[in-house]
Specification:
Layout (H helix, E strand, L loop, with lengths): L6 E7 L10 H10 L5 E8 L20 E4 L4 E5 L5 H8 L6 H14 L11 H12 L5 E6 L3 H12 L4 E6 L10 H5 L1 H18 L5 E4 L2 H11 L3 E3 L6 H5 L10 E6 L9 H13 L6 E6 L5 H10 L7 E3 L5 H10 L2 E4 L11 H9 L3 E3 L6 H9 L2 E3 L3 H16 L10 H5 L3 H15 L1
Parallel strand pairs: 1-2, 1-5, 2-4, 5-6, 6-7, 7-8, 9-10, 9-12, 10-11, 12-13, 13-14
Antiparallel strand pairs: 3-4
Helix pairs in contact: 1-17, 2-3, 4-5, 5-7, 10-15
């Protein structure tokens, strides 16, 4: 394949490294592996010169020049970002002042972007890509991964500008097919009006897409039926090399449980924490037990919730804001157990952390179960324990601690073939097969 001429493909993604938000890993994996399947990816993203430790870090101005970098098998164009009025208020108020005004401005931007471009801080995605395609007439393929969903608006317009372009609308989450929206719930008097506008926009913006893709069968099927368009499923997956460099790290001296990433209100982490506190109390003086919530402090409300649930057990708790990805991997590899929590009643959601957990080879506790995708992955890979209530969690966790105290390896009935299916490379191969059909 290396001797053949590569097919150029544009990947449009708002998030891309060095951005340390998990969403950037999806487009990165395509850029990294598509070259092995006959493609040469060219990524268009925004400038990420500022690490994202707090939500306000997303909204700062960047240097106002385009940065072009080549990485061997792919190249990236980082576009400048210029603050909107909402952004200026967000960054200058230090996340405390004028919350209602900020929310109203956000609502205004989300609504108006359906009709005009001037409210979109990253509208240069369209103008830059149009000029790029005018100069590079040998590019006929494009994958656009969202959210932000307004990227589909730009892709639809580019398809009209250049009929030769075949593009895939990639959904990291479902949009109007989602079961509920916490954003709409904040504005119940406008929710139906906004939903009607966005529904029409989604149908309009994806009408000329060749097909859609999403991160689970359930999401893909829902979106495909809604749009009456062919859909494929491309899981997020993991990159084995990211974890192999930490294969020989020493485990923590304390028995350590780690939850990685942000959390949403509907995740019932309190079930596991109640069981954890029972185990900590029972083994006091015999076992030092610790739980990490890495990056969860990014959301101050979830940080407060966890601290409240762990009241009286503060010495057993470590909660952080966002940390570099390599550090996250190291912490996971040094942990004894990794924690997954279902997303309430929402089905078809795995989250990138699920696949990163698979890469570690560590035992996973799913509590409570989603009785859907997470449970299926845990079961078919043989890498975890499913608990649905406090007593089941207590029994399972106690057994793991006992094994650790005896110095025994925790036995896992791993299915290596099932685990390897969820590598980023395997998932990129699925995407590449569809791209070749479009060619």
């Amino acid at each position: 394949m290396s001797g053949e001429k590569k097919i150029k493909i544009l990947i449009m993604s708002y998030f891309f490294p060095p951005c340390n938000i998990t969403a950037s890993q999806r487009a990165l994996s395509w850029a990294k592996y598509l070259g092995e399947f006959g493609f040469y990816p060219i990524v268009i993203t925004r400038n990420w010169e500022r690490p994202v430790h707090y939500p306000s870090d997303l909204h700062h101005d960047t240097h106002q020049t385009v940065i072009h970098q080549k990485f061997g098998t792919y190249e990236v164009y980082y576009l400048p970002y210029k603050q909107s009025l909402r952004d200026k208020l967000f960054t200058r108020s230090n996340k405390v002042k004028f919350p209602l005004i900020r929310q109203l401005l956000t609502f205004w931007e989300l609504m108006m972007q359906n009709f005009v471009d001037f409210v979109i801080p990253f509208r240069n995605f369209y103008s830059f890509t149009k000029k790029f395609l005018e100069k590079n007439k040998d590019i006929n393929l494009m994958v656009v991964t969202a959210n932000p969903y307004v990227l589909f608006k730009f892709a639809s317009r580019l398809k009209k500008d250049f009929d030769r372009i075949q593009w895939i609308a990639d959904y990291r989450d479902d949009w109007n097919t989602r079961l509920e929206s916490h954003w709409y719930n904040n504005y119940p008097f406008m929710s139906k009006y906004m939903a009607r506008i966005e529904r029409n926009s989604e149908l309009k913006w994806t009408a000329n897409a060749a097909l859609i893709s999403s991160v689970s069968e359930l999401n893909t099927n829902k979106i495909s039926q809604f749009l009456n368009k062919k859909g494929i499923t491309i899981y997020n997956g993991f990159i084995p090399e990211d974890f192999e460099q930490f294969a020989k790290v020493k485990p923590f001296d304390e028995f350590t449980i780690t939850f990685n990433g942000t959390m949403i209100e509907m995740q019932e982490v309190g079930i596991f924490i109640a069981a954890l506190k029972r185990v900590i109390t029972e083994y006091q003086g015999r076992a030092n037990i610790k739980i990490n919530f890495i990056g969860t402090g990014y959301d101050v409300y979830q940080e407060m919730k966890i601290k409240t649930l762990m009241e009286g057990f503060e010495k057993n708790l470590n909660i952080t804001h966002r940390v570099p990805r390599k550090k996250v991997i190291e912490i996971q590899m040094r942990s004894h157990v990794l924690l997954l929590v279902a997303y309430g009643h929402v089905k078809g959601v795995a989250g990138t952390k699920t696949f990163d957990y698979l890469a570690t080879g560590k035992p996973i506790i799913l509590c409570p179960s989603d009785n859907d995708l997470l449970a299926r992955i845990i079961t078919e890979t043989g890498q975890g324990i499913i608990c649905n209530n406090e007593d089941e969690s207590y029994t399972s966790l106690k057994g793991l601690v006992e094994s650790w105290l005896r110095g025994e390896m925790i036995n896992l009935n791993l299915n290596d073939e099932a685990v390897s299916f969820y590598t980023r490379k395997k998932q990129t191969e699925i995407l590449a097969a569809q791209l070749k059909q479009l060619v």
